[in-house]
Amino acid sequence: MNRPVKLLAIESSCDDTSAAVLVDGRVLSNEVAGQAVHEKYGGVVPELASRAHQQHIVPVVDAALKAAGVAVHELDAVAYTQGPGLMGSLLVGSSFAKGLALSCGIPLIGVDHMDAHVMAHFIDEPKPKFPFLCLVVSGGHTQLVRMDNEFEQKLIGKTRDDAAGEAFDKSAKLLGLPYPGGPLIDHYARSGNGSRFHFNTSKMPGYDFSFSGLKTSILYFLQEQQAKDPAFIQDNLNDLCASIQETIVTYLIQNLERAANDLGIRHIGIAGGVSANSLLRSRIQDLALRKNWKAYIPAFAYCTDNAAMIGMSAYYHFQNEKFGTLGDRPYARGGIREL
Ligand code: KG4
Ligand code: ZN
């Protein structure tokens, strides 16, 4: 194709409705509508999430097209998150994308959400060099992914139980903070002492992770302290947040360092919602500096769920003519090929 490739991308896997327009792999717009409705429940309520996606999808897509100055009839393809995610939420985005592709007579591209988190690195310059090792940390997944080119991702490590984002959110819940607690722990930790309290993490085989022991260790510690002093959490919130954050980030970075060392990889990165964490962002930079490696961190807006990353992944699918069909089904669970 000689003229610029114009893609509309839609993300609706969890609790953010997002639409983006990319022209020749350049992001022209990236609109996101969040869902405050879940805050009081301490987690995402699937049925409420899909209803909110239904309310948001048309205005969000309209806003993305308008901000990019692109009309629907100019689109060359429509991309959407096929999975993994909440089934009801995925169905809203996929049905919308399929309807649009059918009515405009343009190709449809189904994108893997976790794959797309890694592809967020290819939105802005400098793009990672290969081989590239990426720690993907979100609310639902924790993975170490190796890339030797733009088209293929290999899973070399994963969590055996909770995801890193879940560890943040569940710890926050134990501290009485609302959902999602990750950003709040980050916030309170800024004024806290991260070496005051110590919590357990488990070393797993290979490059795998486990966060369930950490949650239990925090729970028992808090129960013990509160039995002695009911105001313990309130009076020590900053130090507790800083210590929990320190434990999670140290654990993540240690595994990333070990894998990169063993595999001889010098280009490392972080992706997914937890990569918005300020300590994780500074620790990966420190690691790269110490080892003379290069660290890549996507812009803040491309760390949490967004359609720009779906569009970036779709752009590579488009180049390979890897198109989907109207019969493609969303999937709740998935994952990239394990080594
Ligand atoms: O990738 P994402 O937006 O959605 C999923 O695909 O899961 O990740 C959401 C997760 C939540 O667990 C949230 O608490 C966490 O990312 N998160 C953070 C921060 N910002 C978002 N965790 C720690 N520190 C942050 N600043
Ligand atoms: Zn995500």
Give the helix/strand layout.
Layout: E1 6-11, E2 17-23, E3 26-33, H1 46-68, E4 77-83, H2 87-104, E5 108-112, H3 113-119, E6 132-137, E7 142-149, E8 152-158, H4 164-174, H5 182-189, H6 212-228, H7 232-263, E9 267-271, H8 278-291, E10 294-296, H9 307-319
Parallel strand pairs: 1-4, 4-5, 6-9, 9-10
Antiparallel strand pairs: 1-2, 2-3, 6-7, 7-8
Helix pairs in contact: 1-2, 3-9, 4-6, 4-7, 5-7, 7-8
Bound molecules: 5'-O-[(R)-(carboxyoxy)(hydroxy)phosphoryl]adenosine and zinc ion (ZN).
5'-O-[(R)-(carboxyoxy)(hydroxy)phosphoryl]adenosine binds next to helix 4 and helix 5.
Would you kindly provide a written description of the structure presented here, covering whatever features stand out?
It contains nine helices and ten strands. With 339 residues, it is an alpha/beta fold. It folds into two domains: 150 residues, ATPase, nucleotide binding domain (Nucleotidyltransferase, domain 5, 2-Layer Sandwich), CATH 3.30.420; 171 residues, Nucleotidyltransferase, domain 5 (2-Layer Sandwich). It is globular and about 65 Å long. The two termini are 35 Å apart. The site of 5'-O-[(R)-(carboxyoxy)(hydroxy)phosphoryl]adenosine (KG4) has 18 residues, from helix 4 and helix 5.
